[in-house]
């Protein structure tokens, strides 16, 4: 194509706008027609907040408090997905309206707000929670009131509920393949485990240790935990220097990460001398840590922003168009983005907004347009997913250096690892 | 009628009756169950605020660690409920069935020995009430005997709140860690999550709260209350008169701890879980704010304070999820600047004198038509934030 034939950016933009407007008005008409095909009395037998033109969903994350920095990504991604679904005509011809609630990083508040969303607002689904503590606080309420929660964070497993779809990875998915890879890559014989002191790191390390000792037949030479928010890792670093492990396996979370990686670097424990694999650092955390402090270390996740496929390119572009070109996308942000799409697919498969029918219809749902690639819901309400190893770069992005060949089956109650 | 009015004036029970009317009749009739359940939750904090009125307003000692006692009461109840929810049948997928799930995750294979008493409900109730009181006694005795007071006492109680939080989070095999104890379902086989249970628990809370107010009023009116006040204002004179000042303070601290523990236990029952986020420094300071907003000299005012602040929190965060913290802060600053003695102070210093002056003016001018009871009611303040008991003027605060 010669240069002359390329339309100017402006006219391109104008054309895109026109197309968009046409598509919107078309989808509006189509939406109404679709809604009439699925009369509200039929698709909503449990008095949810669904009308002929609108369906109400809830969004429950921490917009304030210590967790706000982590949960903002999920909030944004869920909103983006909902906007996109609405632009396509909504779900069963109904536009999605969001009621936003702030869990304020406080578990009792999460419980209160989830009850408000389910009992007062009668929302058809809730996208939300981040920490295990907040999920544990709302879970009994979702089961009692029969609500539907789409939970986006990688987590410790040991849980399965009809009322929850877990769109992040459970612990074995994230850990086992990553450890196998590290063992092969580094020919590792010794491992040092370090984590924050709560259930997710502890359970992850328990699974990791069993795998290291029983399957890989290698050795754990140290295991340390520090309280959430801990910022002085000097004694830990001394222990690491004494133990000289082949691999540091880390699950330090939140703000502690900043201190941990900065102090490692200051003590000379850098990527050219030390192999480190973490399961808790995404692009979001690197923003705080600083790319130069993290560079060269590895992270085991199912998604990285740099993932090279057509779905992801579209997703990253849309995300940056909405939230600015400096916005970064971490693993949990992408998992949050899957929530509304999986819900839409389940509603359409069930032909109903009723929670029982959605829960039953969820198993086996496929999403070919997911940024991470292909996604499928298992009967245990977790996702099949690939595990990928990213190497941190100075610019704060990860370079994907390895990827599991197949989707890994979710196994929230792993035999032999408990 | 006049005898009743006289009795109200003498005992200061008018504001208590008004509060009882609001809690027993107005709220259950006007609010749906979800909101009523929230009010029930707020009332649990009101127990703590009552304790603070006795300890801080009357005793002159500020504790910034009441979350400790709230948490101990709440955890005691939660341990009983958790054991009941962890019967071998429902926990059969665990490595060790029959113990709470978080113990199983943390590789405990048997119930710790100090959990055993919580298998029995009477013993649990006893521990819920005695353990926090006993701990308050030990702390209070150690500090007040050495005449530690004022800001030092506040800092030490705050440190204790921090220590307890760290302990709970660190010992997650025994306490559930940062997740707390969740998924509490039944009390002696009675499902606490049903609608009827919510109503019953609400009324039990209201009953206990009103009972506590009457008890505290009685203490305030007794010689003990007078001594507490005297100690707060002129400690040395009381000591020179031969009284053991420290033991009265210990008593006030124990009373505040006991009330907080009752609130914590009711909280666990109504909300269905307990977590370290209700124990630490921030919730403890929030509890002081409830008392401060309501008025630290007024028992009834403290209840209104707890209700108002929590209503504000819920309402602002529902309506403005991104802005609500600023609105709450504006409210606190407004209260501190506008009426430092809280709502009760606003009532006694501004509303009541204005009303009395008005009534006196009416009496002086007989030409004005008599007021019908209906008209009188519309002119009265909507909710009476609670008067100070007679005999205590605001100058003493």
UniProtKB/TrEMBL annotation, chain A:
SUPFAM superfamilies: Periplasmic binding protein-like I. Gene3D superfamilies: 3.40.50.2300. One of its GO terms (biological process) is amino acid transport. PROSITE patterns: TAT (PS51318). InterPro entries: ABC_urea-bd_UrtA, Leu_Ile_Val-bd, Peripla_BP_I, TAT_signal. Pfam families: Peripla_BP_5. It comes from the Bacteria. This is Urea ABC transporter substrate-binding protein.
TrEMBL record, chain B:
It is a multi-pass membrane protein. It comes from the Bacteria. Pfam families: BPD_transp_2. Keywords: Cell membrane, Membrane, Transmembrane, Transmembrane helix. InterPro entries: ABC_transp_permease, ABC_transptr_urea_perm_UrtC, LivM-like. Its main location: membrane. One of its GO terms (molecular function) is branched-chain amino acid transmembrane transporter activity. GO terms for cellular component: plasma membrane. It is found in: Cell membrane. The keyword Membrane applies. This is Urea ABC transporter permease subunit UrtC. It comes from Piscinibacter gummiphilus.
């Amino acid at each position: 194509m010669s240069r002359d034939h390329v339309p100017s950016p402006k006219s391109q933009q104008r054309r895109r706008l026109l197309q968009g407007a046409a598509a919107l008005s078309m989808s509006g008409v189509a939406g109404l027609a679709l809604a009439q095909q699925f009369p509200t009395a039929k698709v909503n037998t449990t008095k949810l907040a669904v009308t002929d033109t609108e369906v109400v969903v809830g969004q429950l994350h921490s917009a304030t408090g210590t967790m706000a920095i982590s949960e903002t990504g999920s909030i944004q991604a869920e909103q983006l997905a909902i906007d996109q679904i609405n632009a396509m005509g909504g779900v069963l011809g109904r536009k999605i309206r969001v009621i936003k609630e702030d869990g304020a990083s406080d578990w009792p508040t999460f419980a209160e707000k989830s009850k408000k969303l389910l009992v007062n607002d009668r929302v058809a689904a809730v996208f939300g929670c981040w920490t295990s503590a907040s999920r544990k606080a709302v879970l009994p309420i979702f089961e009692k009131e029969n609500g539907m929660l789409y939970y986006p964070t990688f987590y410790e497993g040991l849980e399965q509920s009809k009322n929850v779809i877990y769109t992040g990875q459970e612990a074995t998915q994230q850990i086992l393949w990553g450890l196998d890879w590290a063992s092969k890559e580094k020919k590792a014989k010794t491992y040092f485990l370090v984590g924050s002191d709560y259930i997710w790191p502890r359970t992850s390390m328990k699974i990791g240790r069993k795998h290291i000792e029983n399957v890989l037949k290698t050795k754990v030479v140290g295991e340390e935990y520090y309280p959430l928010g801990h910022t002085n890792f000097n004694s830990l670093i001394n222990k690491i220097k004494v133990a000289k492990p082949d691999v540091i396996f880390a699950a330090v979370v939140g703000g502690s990460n900043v201190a941990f990686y900065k102090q490692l670097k200051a003590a000379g424990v850098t990527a050219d001398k030390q192999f480190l694999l973490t399961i808790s650092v995404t692009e979001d955390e690197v923003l705080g840590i600083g790319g130069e402090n993290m560079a060269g270390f590895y992270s085991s996740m199912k998604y990285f922003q740099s993932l090279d496929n057509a779905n992801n390119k579209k997703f990253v572009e849309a995300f940056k168009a909405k939230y600015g070109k400096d916005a970064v996308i971490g693993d949990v942000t992408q998992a949050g983005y899957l929530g509304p799409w999986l819900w839409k697919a389940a509603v359409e498969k069930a032909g109903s907004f009723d929670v029982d029918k959605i829960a039953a219809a969820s198993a086996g749902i496929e999403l070919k347009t997911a940024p991470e690639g292909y996604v499928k819901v298992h009967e245990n309400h977790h996702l099949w997913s690939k595990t990928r190893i990213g190497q941190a770069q100075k610019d704060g992005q990860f370079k994907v250096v390895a990827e599991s060949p197949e989707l890994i089956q979710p196994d929230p109650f792993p035999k032999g690892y408990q | 009628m006049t005898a009743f009015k006289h009795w109200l004036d003498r005992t200061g029970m008018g504001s208590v009756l008004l509060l009882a009317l609001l809690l027993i009749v107005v709220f259950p009739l006007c609010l749906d169950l979800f909101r009523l359940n929230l009010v029930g939750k707020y009332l649990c904090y009101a127990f703590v605020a009552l304790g603070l009125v006795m300890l801080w307003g009357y005793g002159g000692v500020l504790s910034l660690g009441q979350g400790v006692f709230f948490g101990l009461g709440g955890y005691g109840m939660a341990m009983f409920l958790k054991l009941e929810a962890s019967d071998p049948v429902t926990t059969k997928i665990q490595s060790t069935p029959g113990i709470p799930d978080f113990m199983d995750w943390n590789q405990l294979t048997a119930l710790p020995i100090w959990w055993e008493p919580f298998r029995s409900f009477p013993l649990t109730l006893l521990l819920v009430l005695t353990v926090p009181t006993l701990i308050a006694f030990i702390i209070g005795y150690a500090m007040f005997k050495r005449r530690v007071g004022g800001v030092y006492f506040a800092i030490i109680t705050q440190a204790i709140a921090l220590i307890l939080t760290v302990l709970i989070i660190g010992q997650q095999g025994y306490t559930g860690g940062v997740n707390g104890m969740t998924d509490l379902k039944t009390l002696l086989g009675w499902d606490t999550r049903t609608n009827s249970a919510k109503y019953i628990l609400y009324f039990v809370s209201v009953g206990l709260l009103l009972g506590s107010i009457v008890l505290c009023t009685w203490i305030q009116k007794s010689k003990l209350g007078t001594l507490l006040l005297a100690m707060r204002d002129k400690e040395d004179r009381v000591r020179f008169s031969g009284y053991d000042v420290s033991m009265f303070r210990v008593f006030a601290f124990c009373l505040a701890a006991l009330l907080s523990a009752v609130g914590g236990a009711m909280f666990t029952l109504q909300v269905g879980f307990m977590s370290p986020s209700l124990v630490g420094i921030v919730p403890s300071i929030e509890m002081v704010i409830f008392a401060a907003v309501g008025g630290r000299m007024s028992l009834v005012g403290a209840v209104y304070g707890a209700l108002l602040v929590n209503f504000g929190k819920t309402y602002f965060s529902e309506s403005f999820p991104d802005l609500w913290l600023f609105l709450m802060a504006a409210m606190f600053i407004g209260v501190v600047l506008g009426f430092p003695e809280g709502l009760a102070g606003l009532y006694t210093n501004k509303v009541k004198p204005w009303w009395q002056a008005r009534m006196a003016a009416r009496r002086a001018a007989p030409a004005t038509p008599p007021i019908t009871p209906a008209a009188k009611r519309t002119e009265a303040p909507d909710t009476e934030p609670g008067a100070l008991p007679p005999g205590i003027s605001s100058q003493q605060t």
